[in-house]
């Protein structure tokens, strides 16, 4: 059996990854392509998306294609796995005559740094997926890829057009939640630094509420509430947040950020109105019956 191996973090998978797989099937005439997500990249000390979720996304992406097998070998090890180890696993467990190892053009210069590189190059033939006009030696086998995208770029600037259609909904949902979590963490941190008390946040995104998240904090008095409000204005606007509306009184200020609502309340008002209980018990109208 002649195979190609395409490994990586896939954090997250994007249209460039998808294009590499299908171009490799056409160009290399292999019996099967093994797509192998890492648990942890050997050159990194952390990952963004948990390995099992990246594995699930890849399986959904290539579901129904009998020539593409998404292998969980490295994920099951729950550690960084050197490529040579994965290649030896494949050779031991599958009847393989020829292995093409697909790598991105940006990784080509780093190849000599890979663990057991000399042994690895004796077992595989490298195939380079071109990218960003990187100049490569003419003798190398190449797959021409047109998608100018990387997972790191996609994490920084989430662009739905670079996410494969078959997994777009789930990938966008994940990153939307993560972005919201970071924004809420930032708001809570700012309030905590300025001595707000009993800070609570509520995720309302699945309850058809008019905002996705609500943050409530107790002030120590009207001056403290005003100081908190001014500090949030300064810090959050520096982070690119937008305030659509602010309603304020001595005992209660409400900041409307479009998808986040922040309540700054005196102890008396917070006890009287008990918004926490309302939010905790809130049900979408269609779920009440």
Can you characterise this structure?
The chain has 289 residues and is of the alpha/beta class. Helix content is 38%, strand content 20%. The protein has 2 domains: 2-163, 3-Layer(aba) Sandwich (Rossmann fold); 175-287, Beta Polymerase, domain 2 (2-Layer Sandwich). It contains 10 helices and 11 strands. α7 (168-193) crosses α8. The N and C termini lie far apart (58 Å). 29% of the residues are buried.
Q: How do the strands and helices of this protein lay out in sequence?
A:
Elements: E1 2-8, H1 15-28, E2 32-37, H2 51-61, E3 68-70, H3 73-77, H4 83-93, E4 98-104, H5 117-123, E5 125-129, E6 141-143, H6 151-156, H7 168-193, E7 197-203, E8 213-218, H8 222-238, E9 245-248, E10 252-256, E11 260-265, H9 267-273, H10 275-281
Helix pairs in contact: 7-8
Runs in which pLDDT lies below 50 for 5 or more consecutive residues are none
CATH topology-level name of the largest domain: Rossmann fold
How would you write the strand order of the largest sheet? Answer: 3-2-1-4-5-6
**Secondary structural class:** alpha/beta
The termini sit apart by: 58 Å
Number of domains: 2
- CATH class category of the largest domain: Alpha Beta
Number of strands: 11
CATH architecture of the largest domain: 3-Layer(aba) Sandwich
Biggest sheet layout: 6 strands, parallel
Report the helical percentage. Answer: 25-40%
Could you state the order of secondary-structure elements as H and E? EHEHEHHEHEEHHEEHEEEHH
Radius of gyration: 25 Å
Arithmetic mean pLDDT: 92
Could you give me the name of the CATH homologous superfamily of the largest domain?
A: HUPs
So what's the overall shape?
A: elongated
Percent of residues in beta strands: 15-25%
Number of separate helices? 10
């Amino acid at each position: 059996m002649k195979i190609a191996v395409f490994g990586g973090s896939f954090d997250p998978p994007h249209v460039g990854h998808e294009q590499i797989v299908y171009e490799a099937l056409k160009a290399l005439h292999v019996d099967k392509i093994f797509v192998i997500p890492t648990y942890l990249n050997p050159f990194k000390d952390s990952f963004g998306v948990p390995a099992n979720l990246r594995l699930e996304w890849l399986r959904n992406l290539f579901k129904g294609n009998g020539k593409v097998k998404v292998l969980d070998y490295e994920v099951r090890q729950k550690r960084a796995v050197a490529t040579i180890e994965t290649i030896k696993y494949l050779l031991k467990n599958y009847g393989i005559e020829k292995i093409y190892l697909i790598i991105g053009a940006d990784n080509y210069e780093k190849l000599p740094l890979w663990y057991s590189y000399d042994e690895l190059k004796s077992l595989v033939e490298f195939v380079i997926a071109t990218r960003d006009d990187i100049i490569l030696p003419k003798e190398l086998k190449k797959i021409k890829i047109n998608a100018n995208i990387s997972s790191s770029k996609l994490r920084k600037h989430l662009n739905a057009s670079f996410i494969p259609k078959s997994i777009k909904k789930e990938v966008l949902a994940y990153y939307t939640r993560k972005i919201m979590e970071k924004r809420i963490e930032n708001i809570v941190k700012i309030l905590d630094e300025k001595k707000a008390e009993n800070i609570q946040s509520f995720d309302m995104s699945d309850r058809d509420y008019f905002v996705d998240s609500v943050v409530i904090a107790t002030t120590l008095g009207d001056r403290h509430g005003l100081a908190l409000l001014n500090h949030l204005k300064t810090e959050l606007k520096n982070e690119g947040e937008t305030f659509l509306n602010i309603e304020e009184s001595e005992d209660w200020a409400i900041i409307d950020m479009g998808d986040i609502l922040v309540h700054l309340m005196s102890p008396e008002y917070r006890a009287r109105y008990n918004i926490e209980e309302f939010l905790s018990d809130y049900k979408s109208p269609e779920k009440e019956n």
